[in-house]
Write a structure and sequence with these properties.
One of its GO terms (cellular component) is cytoplasm. This protein is of the alpha/beta class. The chain folds into two domains: about 5-185, NAD(P)-binding Rossmann-like Domain (Rossmann fold), CATH 3.40.50.720; about 190-320, N-(1-d-carboxylethyl)-l-norvaline Dehydrogenase, domain 2 (Orthogonal Bundle), CATH 1.10.1040.10. The protein is built from twelve helices and nine strands. The longest helix is centred in the last third of the chain and has 24 residues, at about 300-320.
């Protein structure tokens, strides 16, 4: 008897979910997309990736659903929505999960798996998925790729059902690799999340506040100095939490941004411009609290966080006024 291919569900198919889901579906995996505002566009025209690497790529037809009740139970579920919507999405994950399902939380920030775990069935395995990628949603059903494109997987928690964390990670890495996506298992999920925060904390927050792209932030001497100083504070926070990061990491990530990412606008920039909630709790409040518990104060990040809170409240007020 031939073992069937794993059934994969995408919950929250924005830029991140759309990008990785596109690759999985194009590679022939059994992928199912739960969509809200994009359903009509994707159902009628398919899912598309655009960008330099995808100049000749045509949209592909995918299994799209407007309701979780129409979706089949899935062996793997990938959560591509922002952490701000987890309270609403957790019940959908529970209803779409097959027995022993593996849930990949593809979200930014610190502590996202810890917050999500109590809302999920005990029978599912929870993994963190860190996307090292620059993408944004250009139009309904259209994801623009800017740079990079790997995903790193780390195990968080799950039942004692005979599947080892390493075997689950190996299976997940194999699925992404077979779809043409660079993937690797990470031994320490918390440390990996701190490492990604080194880039996310300055570039996301400053782009939203200053309304500039990563090229400007990296090349203007004043903003570059500020970016690096904030990155160094993230490293201090990580070390206080038992997750020391390499000394030259800040400079390495700034150079990577200059050479490989360029004039990218991070997700928080779009959240601020479109008056959407920003991921301030997981990206700023949680790291600040964790560092403080470790005896470390991060004044630049704290100031950035408070400035972003003002911007977030103004976005809420503007959204209400527009409605």
């Amino acid at each position: 008897m031939t073992q069937r291919s794993p059934r994969i569900g995408m919950i929250g198919s924005g830029a991140i979910g759309g990008y990785f889901g596109y690759h999985l579906a194009r590679a022939g995996f059994d992928v199912h997309f739960l969509l809200r505002s994009e359903y009509d566009a994707v159902a009628s025209r398919g899912l598309a990736i655009v960008g330099k690497k995808f100049a000749d790529a045509a949209p592909i037809a995918v299994n799209a659903y407007r309701s979780i009740d129409e979706m089949p139970k899935c062996d793997w579920l990938m959560l591509g929505a922002k952490a701000t919507s987890n309270d609403a999405l957790a019940p959908l994950i529970a209803r779409a999960a097959a027995d022993g399902a593996k849930v990949i939380c593809m979200q930014n920030g610190l502590g996202v798996e810890d917050a999500l775990r109590p809302m999920l069935p005990e029978s599912v395995h929870l993994l963190g998925g860190l996307g090292w990628i620059g993408v944004h949603r250009e139009a309904p059903g259209v994801v623009r790729h800017i740079a990079l494109g790997d995903i790193h997987l780390g195990y968080h928690s799950g039942p004692q059902d005979g599947q080892s964390p390493q075997s689950i990670l190996d299976e997940g890495v194999a699925i992404f690799t077979a779809s043409g996506v660079g993937s690797q298992a990470i031994p320490n999920l918390v440390s990996a999340r701190w490492r990604k925060l080194v880039w996310n904390v300055p570039y996301n927050g400053l782009s939203a506040l200053l309304k500039v792209n990563t090229k400007v932030l990296s090349e203007d001497p004043d903003s570059r100095e500020l970016v690096i100083s904030i990155m160094e504070e993230v490293r201090q926070g990580a070390a206080a939490c038992g997750c020391p990061l390499p000394k030259g990491l800040s400079q390495e990530l700034v150079e990577l941004t200059v050479t490989s990412i360029g004039d990218y606008l991070p997700s928080m920039y779009f959240d601020a411009m479109l008056h959407r909630p920003m991921e301030l709790d997981v990206m700023y409040a949680e790291p600040l609290a964790a560092a403080r518990a470790g005896g470390c104060v991060l004044p630049r990040i704290d100031a950035l966080y408070h400035a972003l809170r003002v911007l977030d409240r103004q976005s809420d007020a503007n959204a209400v006024a527009a409605a």
